């Protein structure tokens, strides 16, 4: 592929959040727009990105990063599960995998897992899932998660000695896996990069684009996805939520937190 | 269902963004947590929400609102398409519909459509899709969209005389459908509520939860999904993006904008 063709294809990929390339899985198609000369931006790449899927996953944990990673020109993004059977999320959204544990590339640029609650705990103790994560995680350039997905990384032995974060309800649990629980939206320690709960996947995913392709590429993705958040309420953090919001949510998650603590104590 | 049971089931639904209910489509299941007495919060409801899906849709446009709507206890959320065949997004994410144009309830609380680029224009001129949107939109309590999904509303005749927004690139196009293009993250005019580009679906979706269930319920959803955004860059708006980001993105979308203008001129 010539440099000009690469740039043209990039354009197409960059516009993915708005739908400019067709439904071809991880392959970009013929571009429809001509690219201006953009100087030193790293428009092209060949990253291999694996995003784990499992029953009961939280779909926003997966789609937050995917919103930006789907625009990485030249990259291949695999939605990986045990088989190619469609996988249903915690809220009943059913997504078709594009690769299995067997067909997923062995040497990955990014290994990623979303979180959830009971489905996440089931995936964390599943021998096949744990073996897949440990194997790919041993060689991946970046080992990453969003929300309680870090419990899966921890259970696979991938967080020992690393700072990491999780959903606010189970962040402390990571210590049981030998990790150093750290309170931030996105936490990086060497090649381990973890995001906080659910919607932190957007901040995490965009940070990863900056890491992989540089600031200007990431900013282009941000403008294309109009990521200029303006929440109508301000209860998104345990630091800002009022008591009448915190109390029921803490009580609601108490059972999940206890089960997570049991899981981590068995691995500690 | 007794009031106590309703509250228990609610708990389960509210925790959906973290995965506490199983993969049962629009039906919540037996709860695992006991609810504290929460006073005057409207925990339960019976909304019927239809979210349109079509080939080439932008999946974040759909999943942003769904992230919060999936936690509406008692509500039914339908992923509606022409048939039950899986639908593939602009970035190759394939999702299984849960209802068709025929099986979708006739009287909806919320009618919603995501955006995209070429797939959106194809949906906007598709006679069956347009007829479905016009029919349900005529009776729905709220008629809504995110991103260029407002082009579909416009093409179905649902925005005449209403203020509305869209992705920044095609907001002006809405005038061709008789709408009043309005620059805001979420625009409300009577029962038409439209969100700006892609990730505006989170702000739009959470606003809708506040509209349907009140502020405390929405704040609970916000804390559960840890929606406390902290973008690593600040190029998410045409007001803040630097020229080296705006210029290539405007050029990249020029073809889509032109096609959108042609579509709107035919309907104007």
Keywords:
homodimer; 268 residues; alpha/beta; Rossmann fold; 11 strands; 37% helix; globular; disordered N terminus
What does this protein structure show overall?
The structure is a homodimer of 268-residue chains. In chain A, helix 2 (59-69) runs parallel beside helix 6, helix 3 runs parallel beside helix 5 (149-155) and helix 6 crosses helix 7. Chain A has a single domain, classed as Class I glutamine amidotransferase (GATase) domain (Rossmann fold), CATH 3.40.50.880. Chain A has a seven-stranded mixed sheet, with helices on both faces. Chain A has a two-stranded antiparallel sheet with strand order 3-4. In chain A, strands 8-9 form a two-stranded parallel ribbon. Mean pLDDT of chain A is 89; it is low at 1-7 and 18-35. Chain A is built from eight helices and eleven strands. In chain A, 37% of the residues lie in helices and 14% in strands. With 268 residues, the first copy, chain A, is an alpha/beta fold. The first copy, chain A, has helices at residues 3-14, 59-69, 118-125, 127-139, 149-155, 200-213, 215-224, 243-267, and strands spanning 48-52, 76-81, 87-88, 94-95, 99-100, 110-113, 142-146, 163-164, 180-181, 186-189, 192-195. At the A-B interface, helix 2, strand 4, helix 3, helix 6 and helix 7 of A face helix 2, strand 4, helix 3, helix 6 and helix 7 of B.
Helix-strand layout with pairing:
2 copies of one chain form a homodimer.
Chain A (H helix, E strand, L loop, with lengths): L2 H12 L33 E5 L6 H11 L6 E6 L5 E2 L5 E2 L3 E2 L9 E4 L4 H8 L1 H13 L2 E5 L2 H7 L7 E2 L15 E2 L4 E4 L2 E4 L4 H14 L1 H10 L18 H25 L1
Parallel strand pairs in A: 1-2, 1-6, 2-5, 6-7, 7-11, 8-9
Antiparallel strand pairs in A: 3-4, 10-11
């Amino acid at each position: 592929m010539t440099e000009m063709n690469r740039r043209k294809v990039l354009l197409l990929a960059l516009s993915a959040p708005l739908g400019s390339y067709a439904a071809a899985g991880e392959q970009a198609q013929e571009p429809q727009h001509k690219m201006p000369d953009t100087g030193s931006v790293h428009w092209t790449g060949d990253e291999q990105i694996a995003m784990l899927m499992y029953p009961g996953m939280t779909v926003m944990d997966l789609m937050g990063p995917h919103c930006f990673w789907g625009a990485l020109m030249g990259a291949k993004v695999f939605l990986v599960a045990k088989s190619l059977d469609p996988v249903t999320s915690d809220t009943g959204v059913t997504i078709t995998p594009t690769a299995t544990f067997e067909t997923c590339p062995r040497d990955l640029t990014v290994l990623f897992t979303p979180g959830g609650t009971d489905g996440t705990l089931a995936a964390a103790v599943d021998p096949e899932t744990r073996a897949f994560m440990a194997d790919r995680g041993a060689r991946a350039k970046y080992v990453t998660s969003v929300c309680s997905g870090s419990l899966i990384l921890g259970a696979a032995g991938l967080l020992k000695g690393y700072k990491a974060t999780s959903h606010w309800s189970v962040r402390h649990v990571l210590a049981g896996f030998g990790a150093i629980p750290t309170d931030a939206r996105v936490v990086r320690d060497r090649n381990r990069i973890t995001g906080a709960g659910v919607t932190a996947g957007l901040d995490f995913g965009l940070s990863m684009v900056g890491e992989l392709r540089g600031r200007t590429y990431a900013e282009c993705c941000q403008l294309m996805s109009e990521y200029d958040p303006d929440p109508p309420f301000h209860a998104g953090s345990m630091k800002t939520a009022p008591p009448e919001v915190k109390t029921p949510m803490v009580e609601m998650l108490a059972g999940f937190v206890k089960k997570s603590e049991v899981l981590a104590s068995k691995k500690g």
